[in-house]
Design a protein that fits this description.
The structure holds 2 protein chains of 2 kinds.
Chain A lengths: L1 H18 L3 H12 L4 H4 L7 H40 L18 H15 L3 E2 L5 E2 L1 H4 L25 E2 L5 H10 L3 E10 L11 E11 L4 H16 L5 E5 L5 E10 L16 E10 L1 H6 L8 E8 H9 L12 H4 L3
Chain B lengths: L8 H11 L3 E7 L2 E6 L13 H12 L20 E4 L7 E8 L8 H9 L7 H13 L3 E5 L7 E6 L5 E3 L5 E3 L5 E4 L4 E4 L3 E2 L12 E7 L2 H10 L5 H6 L7 H16 L4 E10 L8 E4 H8 L5 H10 L3 E6 L2 E5 L12 H12 L20 H15 L3 E2 L5 E2 L1 H6 L20 E2 L4 H12 L4 E12 L7 E12 L5 H14 L4 E4 L6 E11 L2 E9 L8 E8 L3 H5 L14 E10 L4 H12 L3 E10 L8 E10 L8 H14 L3
Parallel strand pairs in B: 3-6, 17-20
Antiparallel strand pairs in B: 1-2, 4-12, 4-13, 5-12, 6-9, 7-8, 9-10, 10-11, 14-16, 15-16, 18-19, 20-21, 21-25, 22-23, 23-24, 24-25, 26-28, 27-28
Chain lengths: ~350, ~650
Amino acid sequence: MVEDQIQQLQSAALARIEGAGDLDALEQVRVDVLGRKGALAQFSLGKLPAEERKVAGKALNAAKQALENAFEIRQQAFAADALNTRLKHEWLDLTLPAPGPRPGSLHPVTIIQNEIEDLFTSLGFAVLDGPEVETEYHNFDALNIPAEHPARDMQDTFWLSNGHLLRTHTSPVQVRGMEKLGPPLRMIAPGRVFRNEEVDASHEHTFYQLEGMMVDRNVSVGHLIYFMKTLLSAIFHRDAVVRLRPGYFPFVEPGFELDIRCLICGGPGCSVCKQSGWVELMPCGLVHPNVLRMSGIDPDQWGGFAFGLGLTRLAMMRYGIDDIRLFASGDLRFLRQF
Amino acid sequence: MVPGLDTEPAELMRLITMRTAECEGLEQVGADTVIEVDNKSLTHRPDLWGHHGMAREVAAITHGKLRDPVRADLLPAGKGSIGIEIEDFALCPRYSALVFENVTVKPSPLWLQDRLGAIGLNAINNIVDVTNYVMAELAQPMHAFDSEKLHGPTIFVRNARAGEQIAALNEESYNLSPSNVVIADAQGPIALAGVIGGLHSAIGPDTKRIVLESANFQATKVRKTSVVLKLRTDASMRFEKSQDPLNTVRGLARAVELLNEVSPGIRLVGGVADSHGELKTPVPIELTVEWLKAKLGRDLDAREVRSILESLEFHVRETAAGYFLVTVPSWRATKDVSIKDDLLEEVGRMVGYESITPQAPLIESVVPPENASRKYLRRARDMATAQGFTEVYNYSFVTEEMAQAFHINPEEHVGVTNPIASGQTLLRASLLPAILKNIHDNSRHLSAFRLFEIGREIHARGRELPREIPHFAAAMYAREGDGRESLFELKRLAECLMEGAEVRLATARPFEHPERAAIIAWRGEDIGRLFELHPSLGIKGRAAILDLDLTTMEKLDVRESRYQPLRRFPVSAFDLTIVVGLREPSVNIQRRLVSAAGSDLVEIEFLREYTGAPLPSDRKSVTFRLTVGATDRTLSSEEVAAIRERVMAAVPV
């Protein structure tokens, strides 16, 4: 009987599929049984009477189906084993350090400067640059500090072989700003400044300031306090308490020293504020009419305020840095902390 | 401190700080409390260089009454017994003097010694101490000459003559020039005007007769002389603030009273000798309450304004309601107060700035003009830190030796004429000397690191302002390894910082590794260098440096991108390996491949480089992958083969 033969073949093939030790053996079974020239294909049903042929054909198809299924299952089992084996060998120690560089750090003064630039830009101030080597005119004369003015003593100056000087403050950029933009204007100018001083833990010959200025129709001391309070509250992330007291700077009149309520003790007095409860933070004032006039602005029509912020000082306060010399040390053990 | 003042010293100090000038501390000296005031905060206030001026402030602050220590009635009438000749009233607006005889020189009484001691002045003898006391009290420097040591009956105030000298009280001798003003007798200089007296005519134990000088000198002249001679004295510090010419005779009157007390039996000889030019009367300043209110941003009452100004001894005339004509007292009129803005300060500080409410201004909302350079610099910093570089700030100064190590032409540098420390002789014309120092310093602690600086090179341009060129300098250091990684990391950084930057091999400069130096070019312009430091610079390990000129950075920030439609047809890729001479720059091969491939080339990618067997030792192979495709169809295999043939024909394979 053809059906019996088919049955026998199926049983034998199934046994071989079960018994195949690896993918290659299994493939051999597939070729032998299911292949184009395999055992199943060898069955020739053509000679059988139609009735029998129909039955045998069905049986043959059933056997083929069963073997294909068995083959599939066995093949998948092998694939799963192979995958498992591979994966097992791919154990990775993810506690190892990742290669490649870590991000470096920005200089602490850059960080502070970026923050303050962003604050002022959001308040409508332009950010301007000026040269580090300045003319005597822009650094002193145009700021109402003529030659022989005692205020020149307040700022020990590096004089240069070309007759110019290293700017002692960022204030000359006020002058350049007024010359360039004209009124009304709102500007800041951060940058490097120089004083010919001995260096120690709290004094540097090179440090960083941020100059600010607003010139408009009606500018009052009240506006100045408003901007300073807004700025400082944003920098220190809390409501800053400030006070103005008289201070002398020839390019402003009246001139002020702005103090901020000590951030360490909050008022009662500590070593940082020298027991006063206040820390001197920035010189400021209403722009002196002579300064406006020298930059071609009519002081009867326009007025303004100006201020200077010590970026180095601010960075020291923010990060608790007690030695100003570290800023220019180039020491990565320090700089990487920011 | 001031009898009759019922304010605690600490509170008084706070009030002075808030209304007048910064106080730095309190010190108990015997029965007195000394409040130390910051000199710098008095730069503009000649009157506050004497205690009477400070007392006036305190009276105004505390609404107290000011007592004047000067009794003008003590000044003798009649003609002076000594002549005074002033060459130029611009340099010496006034010279007043009194002559005394029957002088007894001895130590001052204790009260006088103590008071001088409390403010840091040494007691010398009764006569000199009185001059110092009057100076400290009235801000009027004085000087006493031993009259018997003077030659001739006249005191001259004149420019020094070339070659003249003076032996001063500090026992130093000074060579004078015509830019110095001296007090002279018939024989020569007896004092350096406004600075210091002469040794020869100094008061000694045997002095019997004195000339007491109370004069006024031009501020800038005194300052110049004291700067040039490096001689700052209590007198010069006061005169350089522009003292009041009307104060000279007040000083004499006060001295008469004190000398009578400390040198009993002393007698005046003649009246006040007094010579002066035209004494200017200050022009009244127009001031309105409305203007004050607008400037302060605070309400003000006309009566309040008036009372403040009058308490400071300004003369106030109200010409109409809220309109004032204000006359400045002589001791504030020399320089300090001349315009209404100065009066604004007087009113503002006395009402107290703390009484002003912060107020947002009513102004137009405008977007501020953009600063493209700064925007770029910020992006550059972020890019560098993202790639592991840490930012350093170096000084703008270099020394000759530092510059020499980098073979920078000395002519390029601007020099510093008055450095106070070594290491400050030149302004840097390159960031590299300091970067080298950074590498040295950090290599002592770290085995590998990356750092960068953005700063300005300063290049001399004769008498003009120098050219300040923004530079980006980065360094990578590794104690171990062959240095390859550092150079390629820096190259990648350069490409990130300047899109389209190209590297061209260059002849090494003496401080560069002779086989590892390149030029960085951007849009056809040389804008920087990439190199390994020459081992002779003493670095343990290897360091590579990238130095970029950022002059073009404003252009770099403008990155205009236009969307390109995505490719709709598949592309084909093939690899080519080319054997060339060992030192053939791969970029040259790539360029040839690109040009041979033509417009259908989508991408060319460097895969690898190989040296070693079986290649001869002077050859290397370089492998590229070329991807080709068209935008409007799929290239046929024949077309791809044709491109491949074309490309292969263009290079040695």
